Protein backbone atom coordinates (compact mmCIF):
# COMPACT_ATOMS: atom_id res chain seq x y z
CA UNK A 1 0.00 0.00 0.00
CA UNK A 2 1.47 3.35 -1.07
CA UNK A 3 1.55 5.89 1.77
CA UNK A 4 0.50 9.35 0.53
CA UNK A 5 1.15 12.56 2.44
CA UNK A 6 -1.46 15.08 1.35
CA UNK A 7 -1.62 18.69 2.54
CA UNK A 8 -4.43 21.17 1.99
CA UNK A 9 -3.88 24.91 1.82
CA UNK A 10 -7.41 26.19 2.34
CA UNK A 11 -9.83 23.94 4.22
CA UNK A 12 -13.13 25.51 3.20
CA UNK A 13 -16.16 23.98 1.51
CA UNK A 14 -14.60 21.94 -1.28
CA UNK A 15 -11.55 20.89 0.77
CA UNK A 16 -13.91 19.45 3.37
CA UNK A 17 -15.74 17.41 0.71
CA UNK A 18 -12.42 16.00 -0.54
CA UNK A 19 -11.05 15.33 2.94
CA UNK A 20 -14.25 13.50 3.93
CA UNK A 21 -13.48 10.88 1.28
CA UNK A 22 -9.68 10.86 1.44
CA UNK A 23 -9.60 10.16 5.20
CA UNK A 24 -11.23 6.78 4.57
CA UNK A 25 -8.01 5.43 3.05
CA UNK A 26 -5.64 4.60 5.93
CA UNK A 27 -2.71 5.01 3.50
CA UNK A 28 -3.39 8.77 3.31
CA UNK A 29 -1.72 11.05 5.87
CA UNK A 30 -3.54 14.37 5.67
CA UNK A 31 -2.66 17.78 7.04
CA UNK A 32 -4.06 21.23 6.36
CA UNK A 33 -3.70 24.93 6.89
CA UNK A 34 -6.29 27.66 6.63
CA UNK A 35 -5.80 31.30 7.43
CA UNK A 36 -9.25 31.21 9.02
CA UNK A 37 -8.64 29.47 12.39
CA UNK A 38 -12.28 28.34 12.58
CA UNK A 39 -12.04 26.59 9.18
CA UNK A 40 -8.97 24.54 10.13
CA UNK A 41 -10.28 23.82 13.65
CA UNK A 42 -13.51 22.44 12.12
CA UNK A 43 -11.77 19.92 9.83
CA UNK A 44 -9.32 18.85 12.51
CA UNK A 45 -12.27 18.17 14.82
CA UNK A 46 -14.49 16.52 12.20
CA UNK A 47 -11.96 14.42 10.30
CA UNK A 48 -8.98 14.10 12.65
CA UNK A 49 -6.47 15.48 10.15
CA UNK A 50 -3.35 17.26 11.39
CA UNK A 51 -3.73 21.05 11.61
CA UNK A 52 -0.69 23.20 10.83
CA UNK A 53 -0.12 26.90 11.30
CA UNK A 54 1.31 27.90 7.91
CA UNK A 55 1.50 26.94 4.24
CA UNK A 56 5.23 26.36 4.84
CA UNK A 57 4.41 23.64 7.35
CA UNK A 58 2.11 21.98 4.81
CA UNK A 59 5.01 21.95 2.32
CA UNK A 60 7.25 20.45 5.00
CA UNK A 61 4.80 17.70 5.94
CA UNK A 62 3.20 16.77 2.60
CA UNK A 63 4.44 15.72 -0.83
CA UNK A 64 1.08 16.37 -2.49
CA UNK A 65 -0.19 19.89 -1.86
CA UNK A 66 -3.80 20.66 -2.72
CA UNK A 67 -4.47 24.37 -3.30
CA UNK A 68 -8.08 24.87 -2.23
CA UNK A 69 -8.39 28.64 -1.87
CA UNK A 70 -10.50 31.01 -3.98
CA UNK A 71 -9.12 31.70 -7.45
CA UNK A 72 -7.96 35.25 -6.61
CA UNK A 73 -6.07 33.88 -3.56
CA UNK A 74 -3.99 31.35 -5.54
CA UNK A 75 -1.23 33.84 -6.49
CA UNK A 76 -0.66 34.82 -2.86
CA UNK A 77 -0.64 31.19 -1.68
CA UNK A 78 1.84 30.09 -4.34
CA UNK A 79 4.14 33.02 -3.40
CA UNK A 80 3.94 31.91 0.22
CA UNK A 81 4.75 28.31 -0.69
CA UNK A 82 7.48 29.02 -3.26
CA UNK A 83 10.52 29.13 -0.92
CA UNK A 84 9.47 25.76 0.53
CA UNK A 85 8.74 23.92 -2.72
CA UNK A 86 11.02 21.26 -4.18
CA UNK A 87 10.78 19.07 -7.27
CA UNK A 88 9.58 16.33 -4.91
CA UNK A 89 6.26 18.11 -4.48
CA UNK A 90 3.17 17.72 -6.64
CA UNK A 91 0.82 20.73 -6.68
CA UNK A 92 -2.86 20.05 -7.29
CA UNK A 93 -5.09 23.09 -7.75
CA UNK A 94 -8.87 22.97 -7.48
CA UNK A 95 -9.30 26.66 -8.32
CA UNK A 96 -11.76 27.49 -11.08
CA UNK A 97 -10.17 29.20 -14.05
CA UNK A 98 -6.58 29.31 -12.81
CA UNK A 99 -4.23 27.65 -15.29
CA UNK A 100 -1.55 25.14 -14.39
CA UNK A 101 0.94 27.40 -16.19
CA UNK A 102 0.11 30.35 -13.93
CA UNK A 103 0.89 28.15 -10.93
CA UNK A 104 4.08 26.68 -12.41
CA UNK A 105 5.39 30.08 -13.48
CA UNK A 106 4.83 31.51 -10.00
CA UNK A 107 6.34 28.50 -8.21
CA UNK A 108 9.43 26.76 -9.60
CA UNK A 109 10.18 26.00 -13.26
CA UNK A 110 10.13 22.23 -12.85
CA UNK A 111 6.97 22.24 -10.73
CA UNK A 112 4.60 19.41 -11.51
CA UNK A 113 1.09 20.85 -11.46
CA UNK A 114 -2.27 19.15 -11.95
CA UNK A 115 -5.47 21.15 -12.27
CA UNK A 116 -8.60 19.45 -11.00
CA UNK A 117 -12.28 20.34 -10.83
CA UNK A 118 -14.07 18.25 -8.21
CA UNK A 119 -17.60 18.77 -6.91
CA UNK A 120 -19.34 18.66 -3.54
CA UNK A 121 -21.07 15.27 -4.05
CA UNK A 122 -17.58 14.02 -3.09
CA UNK A 123 -19.13 14.11 0.40
CA UNK A 124 -21.20 11.05 -0.58
CA UNK A 125 -18.52 9.22 -2.59
CA UNK A 126 -20.47 10.17 -5.74
CA UNK A 127 -18.27 13.08 -6.80
CA UNK A 128 -17.19 13.90 -10.33
CA UNK A 129 -13.64 15.14 -10.78
CA UNK A 130 -12.18 16.41 -14.04
CA UNK A 131 -8.41 16.59 -14.05
CA UNK A 132 -5.77 17.86 -16.46
CA UNK A 133 -2.01 17.66 -16.66
CA UNK A 134 0.27 20.68 -16.46
CA UNK A 135 3.30 20.65 -18.75
CA UNK A 136 5.81 19.33 -16.18
CA UNK A 137 3.46 16.76 -14.61
CA UNK A 138 4.03 13.14 -15.62
CA UNK A 139 1.69 10.31 -16.56
CA UNK A 140 2.55 8.80 -13.16
CA UNK A 141 1.28 12.00 -11.50
CA UNK A 142 -1.97 11.73 -13.47
CA UNK A 143 -2.29 8.06 -12.49
CA UNK A 144 -1.72 8.98 -8.84
CA UNK A 145 -4.26 11.83 -8.94
CA UNK A 146 -6.76 9.56 -10.70
CA UNK A 147 -6.41 6.97 -7.94
CA UNK A 148 -6.70 9.63 -5.23
CA UNK A 149 -9.82 11.27 -6.65
CA UNK A 150 -11.42 7.90 -7.52
CA UNK A 151 -11.87 7.52 -3.75
CA UNK A 152 -14.52 10.25 -3.90
CA UNK A 153 -16.30 9.32 -7.14
CA UNK A 154 -15.62 9.25 -10.86
CA UNK A 155 -12.68 10.83 -12.63
CA UNK A 156 -12.29 12.13 -16.19
CA UNK A 157 -8.86 13.13 -17.52
CA UNK A 158 -9.24 16.06 -19.93
CA UNK A 159 -7.10 18.39 -21.95
CA UNK A 160 -6.69 21.59 -19.91
CA UNK A 161 -8.44 23.72 -22.55
CA UNK A 162 -11.66 21.84 -21.64
CA UNK A 163 -11.49 22.62 -17.92
CA UNK A 164 -13.71 25.71 -18.14
CA UNK A 165 -16.42 23.55 -19.73
CA UNK A 166 -15.96 20.84 -17.10
CA UNK A 167 -16.15 23.46 -14.35
CA UNK A 168 -19.43 24.70 -15.81
CA UNK A 169 -20.97 21.22 -16.11
CA UNK A 170 -19.80 19.23 -13.08
CA UNK A 171 -18.04 21.74 -10.80
CA UNK A 172 -21.00 24.12 -10.61
CA UNK A 173 -23.45 21.43 -11.73
CA UNK A 174 -24.57 20.27 -8.27
CA UNK A 175 -26.05 23.74 -7.70
CA UNK A 176 -28.17 23.43 -10.87
CA UNK A 177 -29.29 19.95 -9.84
CA UNK A 178 -30.22 21.14 -6.33
CA UNK A 179 -32.15 23.98 -7.91
CA UNK A 180 -34.03 21.56 -10.20
CA UNK A 181 -34.77 19.22 -7.29
CA UNK A 182 -36.09 22.15 -5.24
CA UNK A 183 -38.21 23.49 -8.13
CA UNK A 184 -39.75 20.10 -8.92
CA UNK A 185 -40.42 19.58 -5.21
CA UNK A 186 -42.07 23.00 -4.99
CA UNK A 187 -44.32 21.99 -7.90
CA UNK A 188 -45.21 18.85 -5.93
CA UNK A 189 -45.92 20.92 -2.84
CA UNK A 190 -48.24 23.18 -4.82
CA UNK A 191 -50.05 20.05 -6.00
CA UNK A 192 -50.63 18.93 -2.40
CA UNK A 193 -47.55 16.95 -1.24
CA UNK A 194 -45.78 17.81 1.99
CA UNK A 195 -42.42 19.46 1.31
CA UNK A 196 -40.63 16.50 2.92
CA UNK A 197 -42.36 13.96 0.64
CA UNK A 198 -41.92 16.23 -2.38
CA UNK A 199 -38.15 16.50 -1.83
CA UNK A 200 -37.84 12.72 -1.39
CA UNK A 201 -39.80 12.03 -4.59
CA UNK A 202 -37.89 14.66 -6.53
CA UNK A 203 -34.35 13.82 -5.34
CA UNK A 204 -34.75 10.03 -5.59
CA UNK A 205 -36.13 10.53 -9.11
CA UNK A 206 -33.06 12.53 -10.09
CA UNK A 207 -30.79 9.85 -8.64
CA UNK A 208 -32.63 7.08 -10.48
CA UNK A 209 -32.70 9.00 -13.75
CA UNK A 210 -28.97 9.76 -13.51
CA UNK A 211 -28.25 6.10 -12.77
CA UNK A 212 -30.15 5.02 -15.91
CA UNK A 213 -28.15 7.47 -18.04
CA UNK A 214 -24.86 6.28 -16.52
CA UNK A 215 -25.80 2.66 -17.24
CA UNK A 216 -25.25 3.81 -20.78
CA UNK A 217 -27.66 1.56 -22.60
CA UNK A 218 -29.86 4.37 -23.89
CA UNK A 219 -29.43 8.06 -24.65
CA UNK A 220 -31.28 10.66 -22.55
CA UNK A 221 -33.54 11.30 -25.56
CA UNK A 222 -34.51 7.61 -25.78
CA UNK A 223 -35.15 7.54 -22.05
CA UNK A 224 -37.42 10.60 -22.31
CA UNK A 225 -39.42 8.84 -25.03
CA UNK A 226 -39.87 5.78 -22.80
CA UNK A 227 -41.47 7.89 -20.03
CA UNK A 228 -43.72 9.83 -22.37
CA UNK A 229 -47.01 8.06 -23.01
CA UNK A 230 -48.73 9.76 -25.98
CA UNK A 231 -51.44 12.09 -24.73
CA UNK A 232 -50.38 11.50 -21.12
CA UNK A 233 -49.01 13.41 -18.14
CA UNK A 234 -45.33 13.63 -19.13
CA UNK A 235 -46.25 15.15 -22.49
CA UNK A 236 -48.28 17.80 -20.67
CA UNK A 237 -45.30 18.54 -18.38
CA UNK A 238 -42.70 18.61 -21.16
CA UNK A 239 -44.87 21.04 -23.15
CA UNK A 240 -44.55 23.50 -20.27
CA UNK A 241 -40.77 22.96 -20.15
CA UNK A 242 -40.61 23.82 -23.86
CA UNK A 243 -42.94 26.80 -23.46
CA UNK A 244 -40.62 28.15 -20.75
CA UNK A 245 -37.45 27.37 -22.75
CA UNK A 246 -36.01 25.25 -19.93
CA UNK A 247 -33.55 23.42 -22.19
CA UNK A 248 -32.20 26.62 -23.66
CA UNK A 249 -32.02 28.13 -20.17
CA UNK A 250 -29.86 25.20 -18.98
CA UNK A 251 -27.60 25.51 -22.03
CA UNK A 252 -27.15 29.23 -21.32
CA UNK A 253 -26.52 28.44 -17.64
CA UNK A 254 -23.58 26.20 -18.53
CA UNK A 255 -22.21 28.68 -21.08
CA UNK A 256 -22.33 31.53 -18.53
CA UNK A 257 -20.45 29.47 -15.94
CA UNK A 258 -17.81 28.45 -18.51
CA UNK A 259 -17.39 32.08 -19.56
CA UNK A 260 -16.92 33.08 -15.91
CA UNK A 261 -14.31 30.34 -15.44
CA UNK A 262 -12.48 31.72 -18.46
CA UNK A 263 -12.65 35.24 -16.96
CA UNK A 264 -11.01 33.98 -13.76
CA UNK A 265 -8.02 32.78 -15.78
CA UNK A 266 -4.64 34.19 -14.79
N1 LIG B 1 -17.27 24.96 -3.57
C1 LIG B 1 -17.25 24.11 -4.61
O1 LIG B 1 -18.21 23.37 -4.84
C2 LIG B 1 -16.06 24.04 -5.50
C3 LIG B 1 -15.00 24.93 -5.39
N2 LIG B 1 -13.91 24.81 -6.21
C4 LIG B 1 -12.77 25.74 -6.08
O2 LIG B 1 -12.24 25.53 -4.78
C5 LIG B 1 -11.66 26.72 -4.30
C6 LIG B 1 -12.18 26.98 -2.90
O3 LIG B 1 -13.58 27.17 -2.97
P1 LIG B 1 -14.49 26.99 -1.67
O4 LIG B 1 -14.05 25.80 -0.93
O5 LIG B 1 -15.88 27.11 -2.14
O6 LIG B 1 -14.05 28.32 -0.88
P2 LIG B 1 -13.99 28.59 0.68
O7 LIG B 1 -13.95 30.07 0.83
O8 LIG B 1 -15.05 27.81 1.38
O9 LIG B 1 -12.56 27.97 1.13
C7 LIG B 1 -11.32 28.60 0.92
C8 LIG B 1 -10.62 28.70 2.27
O10 LIG B 1 -9.26 29.09 2.05
C9 LIG B 1 -8.93 30.07 3.02
N3 LIG B 1 -7.76 30.86 2.60
C10 LIG B 1 -7.72 32.02 1.90
N4 LIG B 1 -6.45 32.45 1.72
C11 LIG B 1 -5.66 31.53 2.35
C12 LIG B 1 -4.27 31.42 2.52
N5 LIG B 1 -3.41 32.34 2.05
N6 LIG B 1 -3.80 30.35 3.19
C13 LIG B 1 -4.65 29.41 3.70
N7 LIG B 1 -5.99 29.48 3.59
C14 LIG B 1 -6.49 30.52 2.90
C15 LIG B 1 -10.20 30.88 3.12
O11 LIG B 1 -10.20 31.75 4.23
P3 LIG B 1 -11.00 33.15 4.06
O12 LIG B 1 -12.46 32.79 3.89
O13 LIG B 1 -10.69 33.84 5.35
O14 LIG B 1 -10.46 33.84 2.85
C16 LIG B 1 -11.24 29.77 3.18
O15 LIG B 1 -11.38 29.24 4.50
C17 LIG B 1 -12.03 27.83 -5.29
O16 LIG B 1 -10.88 28.16 -6.04
C18 LIG B 1 -13.11 27.21 -6.17
O17 LIG B 1 -13.01 27.66 -7.50
C19 LIG B 1 -13.80 23.81 -7.12
C20 LIG B 1 -14.80 22.90 -7.26
C21 LIG B 1 -16.04 22.97 -6.51
O1 LIG C 1 -18.74 28.64 -7.86
C1 LIG C 1 -17.53 28.48 -8.05
O2 LIG C 1 -16.84 29.37 -8.57
C2 LIG C 1 -16.89 27.18 -7.66
C3 LIG C 1 -16.22 26.50 -8.84
C4 LIG C 1 -17.12 25.37 -9.20
C5 LIG C 1 -18.05 25.28 -8.08
N1 LIG C 1 -17.89 26.24 -7.22
Automatic annotation (TrEMBL):
Pathway: Amino-acid biosynthesis; L-proline biosynthesis; L-proline from L-glutamate 5-semialdehyde: step 1/1. One of its GO terms (cellular component) is cytoplasm. NADP(+) binds at residues 68-71. SUPFAM superfamilies: 6-phosphogluconate dehydrogenase C-terminal domain-like, NAD(P)-binding Rossmann-fold domains. Signal peptide: none annotated. GO terms for molecular function: pyrroline-5-carboxylate reductase activity. GO terms for biological process: L-proline biosynthetic process. Residues 6-97 form the Pyrroline-5-carboxylate reductase catalytic N-terminal domain. Its EC number is 1.5.1.2. It catalyses: L-proline + NAD(+) = (S)-1-pyrroline-5-carboxylate + NADH + 2 H(+); L-proline + NADP(+) = (S)-1-pyrroline-5-carboxylate + NADPH + 2 H(+). Keywords: Amino-acid biosynthesis, Cytoplasm, NADP, Oxidoreductase, Proline biosynthesis. Catalyzes the reduction of 1-pyrroline-5-carboxylate (PCA) to L-proline. This is Pyrroline-5-carboxylate reductase. It comes from Prosthecochloris aestuarii (strain DSM 271 / SK 413). The gene is proC.
Amino acid sequence: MQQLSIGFVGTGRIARALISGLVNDPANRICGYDKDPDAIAAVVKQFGIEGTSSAAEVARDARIIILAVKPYQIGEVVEELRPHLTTGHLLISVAAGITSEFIRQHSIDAMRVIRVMPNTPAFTGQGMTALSKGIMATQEDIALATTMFSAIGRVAVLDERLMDAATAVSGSGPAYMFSLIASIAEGGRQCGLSMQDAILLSAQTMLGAATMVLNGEKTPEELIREVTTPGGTTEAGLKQMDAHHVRQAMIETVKAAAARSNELKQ
